[in-house]
Amino acid sequence: MDKTNENEKIEFDLILQAIYQKYGFDFRNYSKASIRRRIRYRLNQSNLKTISEMQHKLLYDRQFFGSLLLDLTINVTEMFRDPSFFKTLRKAVIPELKKQPFIKVWHAGCASGEEVYSTAILLKEEGLYESSLIYATDANDVVLDKAKSGIFSIDKMKDYTINYRKAGGLASFSDYYTARYDHAIMDNSLKKNIVFSNHNLVTDSVFGEMDIVMCRNVLIYFNRELQDRVFKLFRDSLRLGAFLCLGSKETVRFSSYSDNFENVAENEKIYRKNGECL
Amino acid sequence: MNNTEMTQKSNNDYITNNHKYKVIVIGVSTGGIKALKTILSVLPSKFELSVIIVMHRHKDADGYLEQLLDNECKMRVKQADEKEEITAGVVYVAPPNYHLLIEDDGVFSMSVEGAVNYARPSVDVVFESAAEVYGKGLIGVVLTGANKDGSQGLKIIKEAGGLAIVQKPETSEVSDMPRAAIAAVKPDYVLPLEKIGPLLRKLESNG
User: Does A37 touch chain B (CB under 8 A)?
Assistant: First the structure.
């Protein structure tokens, strides 16, 4: 058992190395437990017997790599996930943004874009959308295309409506989409100030002078070292006094950049970049 | 509500802990609060194992469960934090709406991948992950619940050399989860609730 375990761990490391060298996606500093779980899942879905066989397959079969990539980048998200977060964003952050002539928002690791549209709705209801630009980025083009399309499953809308209400939504959630067959198509007026583009937090560099960076439930997949890299990236992308929003189980507090941020709402993981910029 | 507070003790505590078992993972669903109180209240404040609990609950649940158990137990009870080191003598509760995983170096990690067995956190996910890290140093416990979550995970714990304990179905508020576990794997112990806590104490001292 222990030998198998040891060999399997080597196989996992080799597969990540192969992905990096062949395709440039660097998962080597991801939290291992989740990555192994995802690779095992893909193995079970395929007719391959071992991880080493899978390594061979992914080197020679780009399409197979595409499906593995979708597994490795967890793209599960929802609109107004953690309603209390969006409620606090409206209460504590929006008044500060209203002082600005123009607002730049970066949704880093936006996956299929549900939270991007949530932010767009919030900005619209607060009268800030017309003076805002939202950058929505992800490393995976497949999910980015989905985000761009703004088409979601109608089945989810019931849950999203509940989230929206709990988040302090001012209108009726159905005002923001058109139902067509089993799809909900987000309103075009929400899309016009969103720029979707490919950006990899592991390997790419800063986005300048942001007023808010939202990166929720992305850092949980990274090890401490990679988390530090991304916190530095965020610090350098935010103007002084700008906001950083993380997922409910993520914190800047145990990172090397803790001193660069002060709490706005620690419970909701909303921080603000302070004056010391080293 | 000190969810983000880090524990001060280091993982090296395990090196001086000569006991066979290091960690107890408990999976529970419907009827969980009462069951957990019964078991945990028996454990002493300086219990030498870590306890990790996965209980199915609402995705927007606040820290009520952690607070309640902390008040009722001698051991410290807290919600597991991302990349937090797992320390002896502490009870960790999986946060709502995340899967809980354990890394090789004995820290927690999390995932928001889809529900497993209709649950996030899922008992199977944490059981499997813990079995991979702790092997024969792990005790898995499946308690009351209306689901089959935990049965596959308990099987993996056994296969990795760990110990399997299941609440006696007849004494469970809802017996589906214990029954599914017993159907999937032959447990080392099938016991009524009141006997599980004392057994864990015994396993601590002569495990």
Answer: yes
